[in-house]
Amino acid sequence: MIVLILMRFAINRFVKLCVRSSIMPEVRIEEVSRFMRECFQATGVSENDAREHTALLLQADFTGHYSHGLNRVGSTHFGMAGYWAQRAEKQGLIGMAFTNSSPLLVPTRAKEGTLGTNPIAMAAPASGGDSILVDMSTTAVAMGKVEMKIHEGKPLPDGWAMDQNGKMTHDPNVGFKSGRLYPLGGLEETSGYKGYCLSAMNEVFCSTLSGAKASHQRPWGATDPEDPPNLGQMFVAIDPGCFAPGFGDRLADCLSHWRNLPPVDPSLPVLAPGDKERSHFEQTNKRGTIVYEAKQIESCASLAKQLGVKPILTL
Ligand SMILES: NC(=O)c1ccc[n+]([C@@H]2O[C@H](COP(=O)([O-])OP(=O)(O)OC[C@H]3O[C@@H](n4cnc5c(N)ncnc54)[C@H](O)[C@@H]3O)[C@@H](O)[C@H]2O)c1
Question: Could you read off the pLDDT of 173-204 as tens digits, one per residue?
């Protein structure tokens, strides 16, 4: 009996996987790149800027952050903060990048979004070609990940988003519509106030210092060309050569120490920050294609029509 139940479970799972993979469209990297560039140029962006912005968005899809790749074409968006930190890292520097954004983070004890998802990114080179990349929103997740759950037709995990009344929701459509995300850490009981504090720190770096708009002054989803977002960013580059010798070796030692910790589940090894992105990058590069949710491609088809560019070609 138990064997029969297990077999049925395995068959159901297999069928679900087959159906799922058969409906996930795959696009060649050059084709994604062509589509992004043409969309930008169709709205008057210069060839050079279109190329630069395409590189930023492609890096997000390459590294598995689909919320910030093709999903963000024609937007008024800063994109993947880690892209900028990694540009410094490739030059042998410690790179940091911060931006403020739209009022999606609901401060602990409040029920309205006020601060941005305000990401923090840091990348640094280690000996032997290794590196660290910390690149994360200060909300439990970026809003783009809630959009991805809509595309996937899956519920939200605990502690991601709230409804209009400030109550936790598992419905991605409700979470996206209400525009209310929990800070990193979730509820007050699970130290969500620390995410709120990190986002507040980011706000000081990005808008208070620079005179750009604060996150609460820029409505979520605003795209009026007459009223540009006027967000602020902070970039930092530190030359480790100005400090104690042996930075790269010490960082490599930390990374390998963390990765070699005994895992709770042997099938899930301990990762260092940036490992997921690196492994995703390598797989995408090897495959030469990017696999998207069907809804993503559908929304690109309507964008192509709107802008008069050739629709994205799937394999
Ligand atoms: N432009 C904006 O306004 C904006 C706002 C928010 C987020 N973002 C971007 O969205 C992207 C996604 O952000 P997110 O917060 O949803 O990402 P996320 O929750 O996937 O966290 C990513 C970070 O966690 C690390 N990580 C993941 N799993 C790990 C594990 N098991 N062990 C160790 N480290 C692990 C990753 O290496 C990475 O540094 C980022 O690139 C971010 O810059 C942009």
Answer: 999 999 999 999 999 999 999 999 999 999 99
pLDDT confidence of residue 22: 53
Phi and psi, residue 166, nearest 5°: 80, 15
Strands 161-162 and 120-125: unpaired
The atom of ligand 1 lying closest to the CA of 78 is 1
Structure tokens at 279: 């492994």
Closest by Cα among 271, 261, 268, 229 to 79: 229
235 lies in a domain? Answer: yes
Structural domain that includes position 161: 78-289
The DSSP result for 47-95, as a single string, is HHHHHHHHHHHHHHHHTT-GGGTGGGTT------HHHHHHHHHTTTSEE
Output the CA 194–ligand 1 centroid distance in Å. Answer: 16
Ligand 1 atom nearest the C-alpha of 83 is: 41
Structural domains of the chain, count: 1
Is any ligand 1 atom within 6 A of the Cβ of residue 66? no
**Any idea which of 9-23, 24-38, 167-181 has the lowest mean pLDDT?**
9-23
Q: Is 143 in the pocket of ligand 1 (CB under 6 A)?
A: no
What's the 140 CA to ligand 1 centre distance in angstroms? Answer: 10
133 lines ligand 1 (CB under 6 A): yes
For residue 27, tell me if it sits in a domain. no
Could you tell me the two tokens for 251?
Answer: 């960082």
